[in-house]
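Can you give me the bound-state structure? Components:
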Amino acid sequence: MIKNTINKNIVQYTFKSRITMNIILKTLLLTFMTINLYAQTDKLDIILKNNKLKVCIWPNYYGISYLDQRTQKLVGIDSDLAKELANDLNVKLEFVPSSFATLADDIVQNRCDIAMFAIGNTKKRREKMRFTTPHLASDIYAVTTKTNKKIKSWDDIDKKGVIVAVAKGTYHEPVMKKKLKNAELLVVNSYKARENEVLSGRADVFMTDYPFGKRMLAKTNWAKLIIPNTKYHMTPYAWAMAYGNDKFYNRVELFIKTIKDDGRLLKLAKKNHLEPIVKLK
Amino acid sequence: MKHTSKRIGFLALFIVILLIGSMIYVTFSLKKESEFNHLDNTKLHLNSFAEQITQTVVTIDKSIDNIALVINKKNHLETRVKDILFTHPFIRSINILNEKNRVIYSSNKKNLNHTLSVDDHYPKPLFFGTVLRFGESINARDLFQKDDKLSIVPISKEVSKKDKKYTIIIVVSNDYFINKFSNNLHKDTEELQIIRIDGKVLFSTKYNFRFNKDVNKTKLYESSLENVYSAGMEEINGKKYISAYSLTDTYPLMIVIKLDYNKVMEKWEKKNRLAIFFLSIIIILIALIILKLLSKYTKAKNKEIKYQKQFLQNQEKLRNAYIVYNNTNDGILITDKHANILDINNAFLKNTGYKKEEILGENPKKLQSGLYDKTFYENMWKAIKEKHYWHGEIINKNKQGETYTELLTINQVLDEKEEVKNYIGVFTNISKEKEQELELKEKERFIFQQSKMASMGEMLENIAHQWRQPLSIISTAATGTKMEKELGISKEETEIERLTLINDSAQFLSQTIDDFRDFFKPDKEKEDFFIGEVIEKALNIVQSKFKNRNIKIRLEVEDVQIKEFKSELVQVIMNILNNARDVLETKDMDERYVCISVSKNEKEGLIEIKDSGGGMTAQILDKVFEPYFTTKHQSQGTGIGLYMSEEIIKKHMNGTIKAANTKCEIDGKTFTGAVFTIAIPLT
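Here's the bound-state model for the whole set.
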């Protein structure tokens, strides 16, 4: 946040001043000093100094970073990898609850050092945050009820009279807005809401990804997963952090390379039943 | 047959095995079915309980939220708490703790101002304080009133109001739930447990259950932690259970129902045992019936086979009998009870010369020769009636009027009532045998004659020998007397003496003639005599030849009287003596002996004639009584002497004659020789 403020200052000074060289020089001096100060204090250094890595997670993301209400423990590949990262950095780990809706803000506001909950690398998001190399990639899946008579296959989705629910803030929202020609799109506020829309019959199907879809099958007795016939819209999943902080970014990239090489990624993908969507290269 | 029995046996065995297999399968299936039923019931029970419990916990959760809303409004709080307590009797007390964990409000005044930590409540929230947390079971009436007989579970949640944090604890009565759930559970067999998923058993409907003990982490338990729900059979501490586990939706509680497998299945096992008992009896009965049927079948089959065999045998016999009947040389005739001829065989026709149609229906009288008187036939019929058969020789007449001799057997055939049904006559034509018999007799007579002629020659020689000396005496005496008379030197004394000598000699000659005449005179009748006399007569006849050849006779004679043909026995003795003489004559030895002994036992008179001629070889011994067998030169022997002797002893006197080798001791010397032993029955 401080850094951003300084950047803005730089822009202001660059375009507004030409008044006096003195002022410019002083400002430049000040700016350099500041940049130097911050260049020296990269996020990685702060993390190591504070001995704490703050990781944003969305506690409702099945298979990725799911908070089991019963045990109050996080279960999922990214929460597991967050532990691995903290371990590799040899610092303590703090999970910060976040969501797709608040993600950008949480990152910009520096509420966490990195967001690790399988964030779809989309253009819109890239404007606000810096994505790491993806470690997962998921197509779009649909979930309907076993009793729904309209939806039997993927082709039944984009038909007139079909109502498709998506959660606000997910990448499914813009994708489906663009793709659906005949069906009606219903954008709801939460993940729980989109399930309720389908269960109550207000919508026929909701769009989700592989981890969530699998979880729905495993944990409910009503869900039916509709799988696309061909690749529909593959989205790479990665982690996100604020721009700058190259040292920290590179360290995370190194971590990603390491876990892909040493088998930790595959092992944890298997543990969380996400092997089919893991990206090992 | 054997194969059929085997096949049926295998089939029966297969059926029994099938029945037993089916019984085992059915029993097994029923047992599985029963287990599944119990499992299904348990699952249903579990679902119902899990829903009730979740509902109760949700109620507690909502109640806490409700209380949180009015936490700063004392009047409202009081009313709300009272209302909650009234509506939910399972709540023992409601307590509010401040940040310092001091009880600042409680529906139970006794709890006020006590300090209480909820650190051990589960789970510890990761992010927010708004998680419902469960403490361990406590033996108490309330938070600060210990009581061994009661138990409670404190449930807590952190709430915030106007930047202040509070902890609300609702104390739940275990006993309430035990009462409630127990009504819907089988007391002896079913147990309901509520487990805090960190492994503590908070609650059980089991009497005397020790709370907070660690759960048995069975496979089903672990599986339900992973998959929310699991059910099946499991063994805990050696005891078998039918168990169902279910996690509540969002609370750290697991609901478990366990059925004591053995107790639950006990009733089923009892029924099953009874069923198996009856089924076993049925199977045994079926097996017995099959065996019985099999045995009956086998018996019937065997009987049939036996009958068939017998039938075939009878047929065979009949066939054989028919073959015999038609091909035998014996004539057979079958009559009815009135002696009318019903059937005759080929031999009958051949022997009698009649044709079948000429003889059927006729009476066998037609064959009578007329040689027998009425009495003969009466005796025959008498024998048939009394002994049911007659057997004998009879001369009949054939169609041509020629007589023939037949050996006839007439059998009476009786029916079940012992009444005459048939007569069967079987005869053998023995005319040829009869002729042969006559021929043989003729031949024997000839041989006998031959033997006599041979003996005659022998006799003449003997006579010549015996007469030589007396004739010489007579001649000498006569010529001596004549010469003395011519010379005139005769003396009366000498003459008388010589005449006496002549007379004695003539007497001797006369005696000799008597002896020879007696021998040649055929015996007409048996007469009583001592065997010794016969020996003496025989010796008299042969003695001259014995003396010539220096053969010494040793006699040892007892008085044994018999009644036999005397001269025939003399002939036998002479034959044996002459044979002995002939043998001894050939031997170059100083002393030649013939030992004759006469003795008797209880039944027989015994004559033993031994010689010292060295004995006979085994070959000779075997053939010694055969006709025309001789060891002598053809000019000397005829070979019929001993044959005739045996014929005489055996056939005329019913005695025995045996030849053997023996040793005899004479004057301290041992000689080897032949011995002939004659045994003649005593009269």
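A couple of observations. Chain B has 14 helices and 24 strands. Chain B has three domains: 30-264, 328-429, 438-681.
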